[in-house]
Amino acid sequence: MNTKVVIVDENNIDKDAINEAGLILREGGLVAFPTETVYGLGANALSGDAVKKIFTAKGRPQDNPLIVHIADFNIESLVKNIPEVALHLMRKFWPGPLTIILEKSDLIPGETSANLPSVGIRMPSNIIARELIKASGVPIAAPSANISGRPSPTEASRCVEDLQGKVDYILGGGSCTVGLESTIIDCTVNPPCVLRPGGITLAMLKEVESSIYMDPAIMKKPEADIKPKAPGMKYRHYAPKAPMKIIQGDLKKTIAKINEIVQNYIDENKKVGILATDESKDSYPNGLVISLGSRKFMESIGKNLFEALREFDDAAVDIILSEAFEEEELGTAIMNRLKKSAGFNIVEV
Question: Might you give the EC number(s) for this enzyme (predicted)?
Fold first, then answer.
């Protein structure tokens, strides 16, 4: 398959490119496109045959449901009902990085929902994404635009790296501003439950409805027999090519432990990658050190995480050692991704 790659400027959008990509989606093809979270790999959400192509291109397990992306608030045809709390969440956080799980209508095929009676829906804030959805004339089912299990792409070049020759069109549009997949909240239960942390934090959600809570299993290693209700609940995700360990505890002890482990690997002629922050990056005399940014600005940590893991792949490191972060607010989402990246390989200090 020949993959066409077009880069557009969100401040001066190429309508011809948007319309071309929209036509491909409408006719059952695959298009990678930017959102504020990560790049998505889109297909017509209402076509089971089109959606099947996503799973083939990504190598994605078919029991992993997809999120449906929309460009306006008219979702009545896609769902059976919209609880009042869901309406409040939509009004406050859409467009934006929040996916709301609702009971699906018969318009949504089983391929999109992984044969669940529910479906996740979100309205991206990225203008290119919304213009593409409008041009296609259909809701777009879209997981991240990468080979399944790899770090999600936040740059168009990473989509090309993973999907060249596997999809019809890659629509590039700059770096993703959030860098972490959307928060997912299940509104088919009462009180609503967060199934994946993201840029919309639990505290922000509680401002709308105080009873909203987070599934405690989110931060734990998933059971093998779980039937995922939302993307990312069951399978290893976001994983770099090299094995990864998270060193968790007091920062000074963490730095000392990482340096100790690094020396052991260097003695074995191994190339070590270290995932650090601005506050600690100069504390590591050996290894390839990548700073995610300052701990004072967790938004930067989240934005840079997946690209940093990709850079370690580029450098062909043998092992990655990562500092940990406090599991509160945005740090919860960051640690959720780190733990999955590391396969829950955590060293406590």
Answer: 2.7.7.87
**228 domain-assigned:** no
Q: Is residue 329 part of a domain?
A: yes
Segment 185-189 shows an average pLDDT of 97
Identify each DSSP E strand in the chain by its residue range. Answer: 4-7, 31-33, 40-44, 67-69, 98-103, 118-122, 140-141, 169-172, 183-186, 193-196, 213-214, 244-248, 272-276, 288-291, 319-323, 346-348
Q: Which residues contact 46 (CB under 8 A, 6 or more apart)?
A: 107, 108, 109, 112, 138, 139
**Total domains, the chain:** 2
Give the CATH number, domain containing residue 125: 3.90.870.10
At residue 304, the pLDDT reads 98
Beta carbons of 292 and 154 less than 8 angstroms apart: no
| Residue 219 CB-density burial (10 A; 0-12 exposed, 13-18 middle, 19+ buried) | middle
Q: What is the mean pLDDT of residues 108-116?
A: 95
Say what angle helices 298-314 and 330-341 make with each other, to 10 degrees: 20
Per-residue pLDDT averaged across 62-81, rounded? 94
Q: Which structural domain range is residue 92 located in?
A: 4-219
Q: Tell whether 141 and 38 lie within a shared domain.
A: yes
